[in-house]
Amino acid sequence: MAKSPDNHRKSSPFKWWSKILLILGLCILVGGCQFQPPTTEGVINLTLWHGINPPPNRDVFQKLVDRFNQDHPHIQVEALYIGQPDQQMPKILTAVVGNAPPDILWYTPIITGQLVELDAIKPIQDWLNNSPVKAEIDPALWTGMELENQIWSVPMATNNTAIFYRPSLFAAAGIETIPSTWSEFRETAAKLTAAGEKYGIVLPLGKGEWTVFTWLPFMYSAGGELVRNGEANLVNPGAIAALEFWSNLIEDGSAILSAPERGYEQDNFISGRVAMQITGPWTLGYLDQIGIDYGVFPIPAENQQAAVVGGENLWVMKTTPDREKAALEFLEYVVGSEFQTEWSLGTGYLPINLKTRLDPRYQEYVAKQPALNVFLQQMNWAVSRPNIAGYSRISENLGRAIEATLLGQSPQSALKASQNRLRLAL
Length: 426
What we know:
Blueprint: H1 13-30, E1 44-50, H2 55-71, E2 75-81, H3 85-97, E3 104-107, H4 112-117, H5 125-129, H6 142-145, E4 146-147, E5 150-151, E6 154-159, E7 162-165, H7 167-172, H8 182-191, E8 199-203, H9 209-221, E9 227-228, E10 231-232, H10 237-251, E11 255-257, H11 267-271, E12 274-279, H12 284-290, E13 295-297, E14 307-308, E15 310-316, H13 321-335, H14 337-347, H15 354-358, H16 360-368, H17 372-378, E16 382-383, H18 391-406, H19 411-425
Parallel strand pairs: 1-2, 1-3, 8-11, 8-12, 14-16
Antiparallel strand pairs: 3-15, 4-5, 6-15, 7-12, 7-13, 9-10
Helix pairs in contact: 1-3, 2-14, 9-10, 9-18, 18-19
């Protein structure tokens, strides 16, 4: 485990200036240094940093935070939006090194390893073992909470990706059966394609996490293993097969590429230019508002069914015992069925709480939005992305291999090049 800045045996003027610059950077990035708010006697004021978007989801979260504050007068949580996830890491790391972290942090679990190396977060296994909410957490989410035989976070929201499709375009192409295997999917995409006019699917071009997140289910379906014995393992048969599959869709003329790093945009799907797109349940409400026809089916399988867990977790940052205890009280509220039911009904995220999934209100909601059943079913075989400290570098280099393959490079050479870059970086 890497040492924190305070563990150096000797200080130098350079290190002192580095700390000063980091703190100044924090002030600039976050819009003013985050000194702890004034404390009313008997009240603990906590700050929570998040990047919840779109704004309607942020409003749902704020209402639930307000409810917690009303019911817990001794704890007052201030939820601060600090930008989209890709904008947050410099702020988070600067805050940690500058000794000005929030009390609670919201982010995807893939940064757990970095936070552990920085000694920035409180392990919460002992607390969770004594909490009634432990038994209510979806077992598929435990891997994303764990690292080095310790629990570091709790899930707040979860999802996974599936294939959205346009039933009207399937009918026009004479397709009556939903594809469930790679070979069936490739045939279906070809039938939906009219060169230069319509295409079977849009694939995400780019090397960012969105591209990696949407591609990983295919690698896992082919038996791929991204990390082996704690080390990056990019050149593996499953990864090669998954890249070949996407490459074949391009070579067939059945797929078009998104704009760079814009693979989540749905303009071509909505217009009918493409018949299928990989995305998640957060788009259901938007598509309903637009009023187009659509359906959802699971990620097609090669060797086995696969899906990858998305969503965000909450960490308790290391501060003081009283503040950490108060933060854990908020985490227990978030994991509980009351919060999870309101959050899921208001945002479309899948509930991480098993009791919520049995709640009559949620079951009624799913009955009105049956596409959610696909995502709920996929949680039975969904896996988490590795949350080791080097995941960001692994993801970046894997993304570069995916992008290179979609632009014409052979899968094996693209993966080897990325593995070599990664070896040098690490």
